[in-house]
Amino acid sequence: MASKVLRAVVLGPPGSGKGTVCERIARSFGLQHLSSGQFLRESLRGGGEVGVLAKQYLERGLLVPDHVITRVMMTELEKRRAEHWLLDGFPRTLGQAEALDRICELDLVISLHIPFETLKDRLSARWIHPASGRVYNMEFNPPHVHGIDDVTGEPLVQREDDKPEAVTARLRKYKDAAKPVIELYKSRGILHSFSGTETNKIWPYVYALLSNKIPPLRSEEEH
């Protein structure tokens, strides 16, 4: 590992494949993949004050408000001051980006740009296992048994805001919130944007960028 601690963020709208990109980066470069969704689920199970707050929103399929997710993430990041990490799903808003600024300095921000129609198609075909956060796409990553989680055998659900009628509004909301965050990181010279419709085609460029920052643990071909 490099001697300097590397802090990176992957930004992208719902359905952009940022979770997949983060998993590949984590495996290839040894960065911890810190998912805001995963931390929220852990808070939920823990049953503390923040977990109870978050539960009220998640049960209705809504985005958790700024102040709740910020509290969750700040607590987790404080524990990891000496570690390499990669943030997935945070910051989503300028308020969250400013909170992040107060505890660390980012080295790298990757922004994924996927055509609107591709995102709509991906999200409308997306079903999840609520307890684990496992995501299935009925077109290119379906479960072995239709409507059933591969690991637990429990039923899959479609989030209210993944339903076709809600997707357009959800993507517009993301874009409005993310625009000032993207502009902030662009002005600092740490933003790197990648466009395309397939994660496998974007990945080699992301891998090349990271390779200039930190020595890879695994070659690109291992994916």
Automatic annotation (TrEMBL):
It catalyses: dTDP + ATP = dTTP + ADP; GTP + CMP = CDP + GDP; CDP + GTP = CTP + GDP; a 2'-deoxyribonucleoside 5'-diphosphate + ATP = a 2'-deoxyribonucleoside 5'-triphosphate + ADP. It is found in: Mitochondrion matrix. GO terms for molecular function: AMP kinase activity; ATP binding; GTP binding; nucleoside diphosphate kinase activity; nucleoside triphosphate adenylate kinase activity. GO terms for biological process: ADP biosynthetic process; AMP metabolic process; ATP metabolic process; GTP metabolic process; nucleoside triphosphate biosynthetic process. Residues 125-162 are annotated as: LID. Residues 126-161 form the Adenylate kinase active site lid domain. A ribonucleoside 5'-triphosphate binds at residues 15-20, 126, 135-136, 199. Residues 35-64 are annotated as: NMPbind. InterPro entries: Adenyl_kin_sub, Adenylat/UMP-CMP_kin, Adenylat_kinase_CS, Adenylate_kinase_lid-dom, ADK_active_lid_dom_sf, AK3/Ak4_mitochondrial, AK4_mitochondrial, P-loop_NTPase. Keywords: Acetylation, ATP-binding, GTP-binding, Kinase, Mitochondrion, Nucleotide-binding, Transferase. NCBIfam families: adk (TIGR01351). Consists of three domains, a large central CORE domain and two small peripheral domains, NMPbind and LID, which undergo movements during catalysis. The LID domain closes over the site of phosphoryl transfer upon GTP/ATP binding. Assembling and dissambling the active center during each catalytic cycle provides an effective means to prevent GTP/ATP hydrolysis. This is Adenylate kinase 4, mitochondrial. It comes from Gallus gallus (Chicken). The lineage of its organism: Eukaryota, Metazoa, Chordata, Craniata, Vertebrata. The gene is AK4.
